[in-house]
Design brief:
TIM Barrel, binds fe (iii) ion, Urease, subunit C, domain 1, seven-stranded mixed beta sheet, four-stranded parallel beta sheet, alpha/beta, binds guanine
C-alpha cells in the first residue's frame, strides 16, 4: 500500500517525527518506509490519499480488564480494595454465563477498535469458557491481543475463588488450545495480584510460564493498603516485587506490571533487571485515589514504562484520554517534586504507542520493518476552522478527540473494518 497524508509518530521517547504531506509505503504486514517525496519505483502504484488528515501509529493498551468495560464510570467513591469487593467482583461473577460474556466481549472488541486500540493485553475473568470465547473473538476481530484467564484462589468471593489445581489445569488447557487454534491472539498468564493467589498457585503459574515460554501480567504496588496487605501475607519475603520474583512470575522482558507506584530502590533494580514493563494507569490512579506513579523518576532510572487505560479503574478505554491524564498527573506531581520534570504530551504519546508496542516487538512507530498499525485522524469541524500544524492537531486529538475523529484503522498492514458490526 501507499498512503499519503500528514505522517506523525514518535520513534524515540520525547521526539516527534512529522512528515507534512508525506508518503508511507507498506509491504505485507510491515512499514517499508516513510518519505517526503515518493520514491520513483512506486510512481505508478495506486495511492490512498488521506489529504490533510494525520496518519499516526495505533494505540497499544497493555493493561485493561475486558469484563470491567461494563463498569466504566462506576464506583469511584471507593479505594481499590473496597472497590473490588463492591463493584468489580460482582460484575466479573456474571461471566460464568457464556451467552452474557459473548455479548460483552463483542462490544468490548468493537469498542477497542473504535477508540483506536489495535493491540492489547487484557484480563478476562476466572471463567475458562468465557476467557476462551474472548480469545476466539479477539482472533476473529483482526485486533492483536493477549488475553489472560484470571487466576485467583484466595481472598475472593465464593463465585470467583478457584480451586488451585483446577485454576492451573484450566490455564494449561487454554494455553494448549490457543497454540493450536489461534494465530493472532495469545494467552498471557494472569495471577490477579498477590492477595488473590496462594503461593502454590503462583508457583504453578511460574512453572507454566517456564514450560510454555509465556508472558505474565499482574498488578503491583497500586495502593498503600494493598501494599501493607501483601507485606502481612508474606512476612518472610522482603517486598511485593520479590513475591512475584520468588515464584518465577517476573519473566524476562515478558512481564507487564500495572501501577508500580510504591516501590523501594531494591524493587526498581529488580524490575529493571527483569525487563518488566510498568503500565502507568493515570486515570485509575486518580479515580481510585491510589496515588501518583513517579513516572519521570522511573523513566530516568531506565525502567520500561507505558501508558495504559486500566478499564474500569480507568473510566475510559480511549488511550488518548490516558495520554492526557498522564501529562496532567505528572504536572501535579512536579508541583510537589520540582526535581522531577513533568512528562510532556509527546513523551506520553510515545508511551502509548512505541513504549507499549515494544512488548509486542517491532510495533508502535513507522520504522522500516515495523508492523503497520495506524489510525487516520481528522479534525472535527470546529478545529478545522483554525490552521494548525500536524503536531498541534495530534495534541488536540489526544486531549479532546474521540472515535468520531478516527477515519480509518489499519492493523498488521491491512485496513481494519469494525469487527462485529451487527452487535
Ligand atoms: N488489583 C487487583 N485487581 C484489580 C483490578 O481489577 N483493577 C485494579 N485497578 N487493580 C486491581
Ligand atoms: Fe488493573
Amino acid at each position: 500500500m501507499i498512503l499519503h497524508g500528514n505522517i506523525v509518530h514518535a520513534p524515540v521517547l520525547g521526539e516527534l517525527e512529522v512528515r507534512t504531506q508525506g508518503w508511507l509505503v507498506t509491504e505485507g504486514e510491515q512499514v517499508a518506509g516513510v518519505y517526503d517525496t515518493l520514491p520513483p519505483q512506486y510512481a505508478d502504484q495506486p495511492v490512498t490519499d488521506w489529504g490533510d488528515a494525520l496518519i499516526i501509529p495505533a494505540f497499544c493498551d497493555l493493561h485493561l480488564h475486558a469484563p470491567q468495560i461494563l463498569n466504566r464510570g462506576i464506583g469511584y467513591d471507593k479505594e481499590l480494595l473496597p472497590w473490588l469487593e463492591t463493584y468489580t467482583f460482582p460484575t466479573e461473577a456474571r461471566f460464568g454465563d457464556c451467552a452474557f460474556a459473548e455479548r460483552v466481549w463483542k462490544a468490548f472488541l468493537n469498542h477497542l477498535w473504535a477508540v483506536g486500540t489495535l493491540r492489547f493485553s487484557a484480563f478476562a475473568t476466572v471463567h475458562k469458557e468465557a476467557a476462551w470465547r474472548l480469545m476466539e473473538l479477539s482472533e476473529q476481530s483482526g485486533l492483536r491481543g493477549l488475553v489472560g484467564k484470571v487466576n485467583m484462589d484466595r481472598n475472593a468471593p465464593d463465585a470467583l475463588r478457584e480451586d488451585t489445581d483446577a485454576s492451573l489445569a484450566d490455564t494449561e488447557e487454554l494455553i494448549c488450545r490457543s497454540r493450536e487454534e489461534l494465530r493472532r491472539t495469545g494467552l498471557i498468564l494472569t495471577p490477579r495480584f498477590v492477595p488473590s493467589t496462594t503461593e502454590r498457585l503462583m508457583e504453578g503459574l511460574g512453572r507454566l510460564g517456564e514450560r510454555y515460554h509465556l508472558p505474565v501480567q499482574s498488578h503491583l504496588a497500586e495502593n498503600p493498603s494493598e501494599v501493607a496487605w501483601v507485606a502481612s501475607l508474606h512476612p518472610d519475603i522482603p517486598s511485593y516485587t520479590e513475591v512475584y520474583d520468588r515464584f518465577g512470575l517476573l519473566r524476562q522482558n515478558q512481564t507487564i506490571m500495572a501501577h508500580a507506584s510504591y516501590l523501594s530502590e531494591a524493587e526498581k533494580c529488580l524490575l529493571q533487571e527483569r525487563g518488566v514493563t510498568l503500565a502507568h494507569c493515570a486515570l485509575s490512579n486518580t479515580n481510585l485515589s491510589s496515588g501518583i506513579m513517579p513516572l519521570r523518576h522511573h523513566l530516568e532510572q531506565g525502567l520500561r514504562c507505558c501508558v495504559a487505560s486500566d478499564v474500569a479503574g480507568g473510566n475510559t478505554a480511549a488511550v488518548a484520554a490516558s495520554v492526557a491524564a498522564t501529562v496532567q498527573t505528572s504536572t501535579l506531581h512536579t508541583l510537589r517534586h520540582p526535581e522531577h520534570a513533568p512528562v510532556s504530551w509527546v513523551e506520553a504519546f510515545w508511551l502509548a504507542t512505541r513504549g507499549a508496542g515494544q512488548f509486542f516487538g517491532d510495533v508502535g512507530a513507522f520504522l522500516p520493518g515495523y508492523a503497520f498499525d495506524a489510525l487516520v485522524i481528522r479534525p472535527d469541524r470546529l478545529d478545522a476552522l483554525m490552521e494548525r500544524t500536524p503536531a498541534e492537531r495530534l495534541e488536540q486529538f489526544l486531549y479532546h478527540g474521540d472515535d468520531r475523529n478516527i477515519a480509518a484503522r489499519y492493523c498488521g498492514g491491512t485496513f481494519l473494518p469494525m469487527p462485529f458490526p451487527l452487535t
